[in-house]
Amino acid sequence: MMNRELDALYHSTNQQTLAQWQVTQDIGEPRGAYYDPRRLALAAGIQPEMPAQIRALLDDLQQLAGRDPLADILPAEGFHFTFLPLTLPLYEPGESLPEKIRHLTMCWKHYHAQTIKINALRLVALPGQLLLAGIADEQAMAMRQAFCQQVLHSAWRDELLARHPALSLPPLFWHSTLLRYGATYLPQTLREFFLARQGRDYGDVAGSLKLARINYNWTQCYPLD
What we know:
Blueprint: H1 3-23, E1 41-46, H2 52-65, E2 71-73, E3 81-85, H3 101-108, E4 115-126, E5 129-136, H4 138-152, H5 157-163, E6 175-181, H6 188-197, E7 205-208, E8 210-214, E9 221-223
Antiparallel strand pairs: 1-3, 1-8, 2-6, 4-5, 4-7, 5-6, 8-9
């Protein structure tokens, strides 16, 4: 996907979300956790330094919704961008990984510690979530495509497909989820938060790739390499 196409996708995603919010003014039905909060998954990604403008954004979000029991806000220590989510949360903390993990680490050795950069960060809204999404450089896009294909031709194919049952592979967005809301739609206060900031450029981030066992928001991260 070309940069202009991804930029257009983020814009159209926001427009679709705004249309849904206009139809439904309340938060809709409650929902359970997006992912198992205790078990760990396998994923590749980066944990970059947090720029000051993003820290301020998270602080504002915490001030607004930190006391809302339905608002699951990304803690600063979990700041990350996923390169490729590989499995659902399958593993108990401390559980040994299957022997075939060597197939995955063999695939990963060509990407370990490579630096990727994600530019033009902006807020993207889903009906019940707020994302911070950007445009990866061409090298990062090519690496993700290549790694995804390697995993699809490895012993981890089924786990990867289970993690992405209805999405294109690799995923189109380059993002970090800042907030997950425990209902179908965000409340009006968080919609207004997004509307006031949707046009802002939050800069760029860069970081070294790692393959890790992680919880859903990367506040627990155990590198495999």
